[in-house]
Specification:
By secondary structure, this protein is of the alpha+beta class. It has 12 helices and 11 strands. Strand 8 and strand 9 form a beta hairpin. It binds 3,4-dihydroxyphenylalanine (DAH).
Length: 361
């Protein structure tokens, strides 16, 4: 006990001499830890007589408190110094230019679907969807394409292995089955478009086994060919952005429409390039017709009461024509250079309200 002052000042100078948090912690354990020098002296108090113990105990507590206070002060000094050192070492140079970010693009097919949807939304159409894997009934039979009908062969259908009941599902060959699914689900009036994937076993510069179509269906009381023509003329002019675009309805045949018409737009091929709008040439862009009464009846609609029109177009085809993309296969190559050239900046998307009034579309 006699050398308490000496021990105390020795410990206090060790505290001052500690240059790191770790060194300071070692000093603390050596002094105040369970087996530290001060703690051991505390234990010695037990063997003293009461008078002596009181005086020695008070002295020891003063020393203990002053050591603890010194350690605390030293600790906050050391932490502040460590933080200062880090702040100096890790300074950020805010004048450095940022690293370049790759700019994302919207695929021309996505963009084209958005444009088509925006134009028809303006005319009051809503978007409907259906499954890619279809039953034979929805893909063919309900659309008035019965077994053995030659149109079935033209579709180059992908068949799936037979189900438990022996029936083979198909990858839908067109978006037309969604006409049937919609008419089964809702009562007239109907005004839908159906953008989606379609599949045919065909692969060359102008055909891909997976491609996209957009179907349209309008059913109501008193719908006639004039509605079909007006609707599709407006669509073609809005989509291609040519106000006086010539549009021609050419008689055709589809099992699900009667009468049927293919729709051509005016163009010219003078000078090698294709120019849509003027000229004396024609380009087929979609199929259409008045919904066959048999199809209405198949869906439980009364053909005496309701009439309607339908149409279907290939998304790749109209995208190639509008944006001058020469090869269909490039749509699916995932080539970033191609995307940079033909892709669209996302914030440039067509507004629904830009449909018929011009705007971005
Ligand atoms: N489903 C036809 C096809 O894939 C396109 C089509 C033609 C759809 C006439 C229609 C339509 O709705 O009325 O070739």
């Amino acid at each position: 006990m006699q050398n308490l002052d000496a021990i105390s000042s020795e410990i206090l100078s060790a505290v001052d001499a500690a240059e790191t948090i770790e060194a300071l912690e070692a000093v603390r354990i050596d002094a105040l830890g369970k087996k530290g020098r001060v703690s051991l002296m505390m234990r010695e108090l037990g063997g003293m007589d009461p008078e002596e113990r009181k005086a020695a105990g008070q002295a020891l507590n003063v020393v203990k408190d002053s050591i603890a206070a010194a350690i605390e002060t030293r600790q906050s000094d050391l932490s502040r110094a460590a933080l200062d050192a880090r702040l100096t070492a890790e300074a950020i140079d805010v004048s450095l230019p940022s690293r370049p970010e790759a700019e994302a693009r919207l695929h021309p097919l996505s963009r084209t679907i958005e444009e088509v949807v925006a134009i028809f939304a303006e005319m009051g159409f809503t978007v409907a969807e259906g499954p890619d894997i279809e039953s034979d009934y929805y893909n063919f039979t309900a659309l008035n394409i019965p077994e053995e009908h030659p149109a079935r062969q033209e579709h180059d259908t992908f068949y799936l292995p037979p189900d438990g009941d022996g029936r083979r599902k198909v990858l839908r060959t067109h978006t037309s089955p969604v006409q049937i699914r919609t008419m089964e689900a809702v009562e007239p009036p109907v005004r839908i478009i159906v953008p989606g994937r379609t599949y045919r076993s065909d692969h060359d510069a102008t055909h891909s086994p997976m491609f996209h179509q957009c179907e349209g269906l309008v059913i109501g009381d008193g719908i006639h060919m004039g509605h079909l023509k007006g609707c599709l003329i407006d669509f073609c002019r809005a989509f291609f952005g040519v106000d006086d675009l010539p549009v021609r309805f050419r008689p055709s045949y589809f099992p699900f429409t009667e009468p049927s018409a293919e729709v051509d737009i005016g163009c010219t091929r003078d000078g090698g390039g294709l120019k849509i709008g003027a000229g004396d040439d024609w380009l087929e862009i979609l199929g259409s017709g008045m919904v066959n009464p048999r199809v209405l009846a198949n869906c439980g609609y009364d053909p005496e009461k309701y009439q309607g029109f339908a149409f279907g177009m290939g998304i790749e085809r109209i995208a190639m024509l509008k944006y001058g993309i020469p090869d269909l296969r490039t749509f699916y190559d995932s080539d970033l250079r191609w995307m940079r050239h033909y892709g669209f900046l996302p914030f440039d998307a067509p507004s629904i309200h830009a449909g018929l009034v011009g705007g971005t579309v």
